[in-house]
Structures are given as structure tokens and as C-alpha cells.
Known about the structure:
18 helices; 343 residues; two-stranded parallel sheet; globular
Amino acid sequence: MKELTKQIKEKSFHKVYLLTGDEPYLVLQAKHMLKNAMIKEGDTMNYAAFTDGKIDLNTLQELAFTYPFFSEKRLLLLDGTGILKTGKDEFVSIMENMPETTCIIICEPEVDKRSKVYKWIKKNGYVGEFLKKNQTEKVLLRWIAALLGKEKKQIRENNARYFLQKTGDDMFQIKNEIDKLIAYAGDREEITQADIDAVASGEVQDKIFDLVDAIARKNKAAALSYYNDLILLKEPPMHILFLIVRQYRILHIIANMRGLRKPDDAIAKTAGIPRFAIRKNEQQLRGYGEKMLEKCIEECIQIEEEIKTGRINDQIGVESLTLAAAATQNLGIVILAKLLSTL
């Protein structure tokens, strides 16, 4: 973002920009920054967007070779078209020969860095790669402070960390919840934990975490309450079961890799969670042993099979699973009970 901001400030643009990576919020922001810097709002004469995978290269070439009309730039946006896979030599020829007044922005979540098209853009254009792994807790905390600072709001670091635990690392989710907090606080300058609890909705995965935590504490009432919350959010029982299994697997990976003394970066990558979320999950591990986690995963998979084969109703099966697990941390009994009830 710093490099793009510098280019925009100096009006020193490349002919081709490739915006890629698994952090869609930053890709979207970069795309808007470049578009707004090159084209005036509402200028349809000098701007064209392609989002269809079946892009016509002849049409693209015609537009790319047309000089702008009362504008310094003609901008072409290729958003999710797969052009890097399908265009190949013909697309490289268009980029090589189009005038300096034309700029192409390509947005693709994944690219083949071995391809001829990618290598050409890397050498002659600009590649912006926006990755979730770079959005560390420190970076996100700084971003949260900046978002609030623009509205003359502030937040203590411990409360900002608490906020991240509720929202996760999805930048769209964070921005949406920050906007809600700003509106909720009104004229007050400081965002408090009470504000976060009152406004921040948290993710479905956060509620799954609380459900699994209640199971570890053998708190049947809390486990059922969290389960009912998920049902009210219109989460299908089978999806809830999938997320429960996913949480157990995350815990199992952390426990196993901690035992092998693996670094946090490796654990986060293998578990598929942000690095800063490791601490929170480790706290939940206190209620589980590694063998118990393996047993929980096995029993969840077994009950999933029974649901899919029609032996158990999905909602009743997952609800009973939750209650039985919270009561005993032994899931086998619920499967046996449900099977007997169908005979």
C-alpha cells in the first residue's frame, strides 16, 4: 500500500498492475485507490471493466489501443477473468504494444508465478501481493487504531486485542464492526470493552469456540445455549458439526506441534488460524487431553456418517451430541442411544 500511495502521489503509473493474494479487502482497496487516481468518477468514456471469464481479446485489444478522451489515462479493469491463464501470448502482445496512456489493472486471487504472463508483468509492470499472513496482530492493531483515530476515537490495547478475538482477522469484518462501534459510541472518545460486548457480533467460528469451551467445562446449559444461538443464525446443523470438528482439529494440531516444539508461524499455517489466535486456543486446551481430542474427532465423524445415511436426524443428532459431550466428554454414548432409538 505504501508503494501504491507513493506512485499515486507522484502520478508515476505502470502500464499494468496485477493485484493478487488471499486478503481480498486489501486487493479491493488497492483497486479503488488506483482507479480513483487515474479516472474521474463517472467517466465511462475512458473506463471499462471485464468480470466475465470468457473475455474477448479482440475487444480488449481495441479498447487498449484507443487513446483516452479528455483524460490522461484510459483504464481497463480485468477482475477475476482468469486472463493470466487464458490470454497467454496474445495478451502479452497487447500489453507490450498498447500506448503508455492505457493502464490495465488485473485482479486475481491466485496466479501461476511460472507463467509467461506473470513473468512479463513482474518485469514490466507492478505486482501487488496482499497476503493474510502479513496481517499480523500488530499490523491489525495498528490498523484498528488508525480507523478509530480518523473519527477521533481511541481504544486501549487490551480492548483492541479483545475486539480481535471476537471478530477474527477478516478485514471486512473488522471494518464493519469498527463502523458499528464508532456509531454506538457517539460523542464518547474511548471505545470500551462494554461497547465491544454490546455491538461486536463476532463470527460463527467464535460461537463454535465458545461451544467447544463449554463442552470442555462440562457446562450443558452453556453448550446448548451456544448451539441454539447458532441455529438462530440459520447455521445448518451439519455445518455446525463440521465447524466443531474443525475446532477440535485446530486444538489437536496445536497440542501436537507444541509437543514437537514447533514455532508459532508453523503452527498457525498448519492449523489455518492467525498467529495471534494460538494463545486463545491454547487456553481451551486445558480442558482436553490429546487422546480425548482424537476421540472427539472420531465420534463426530461417526455421527456425521449416521446423519448422512439417514439413521439420525441432523438437528437432533448434533444437539444430542453437544449435550452428551458436555455431560461426559465421551461422545460414544449418544451415538449408541440414537442408533437404538431408530431400531
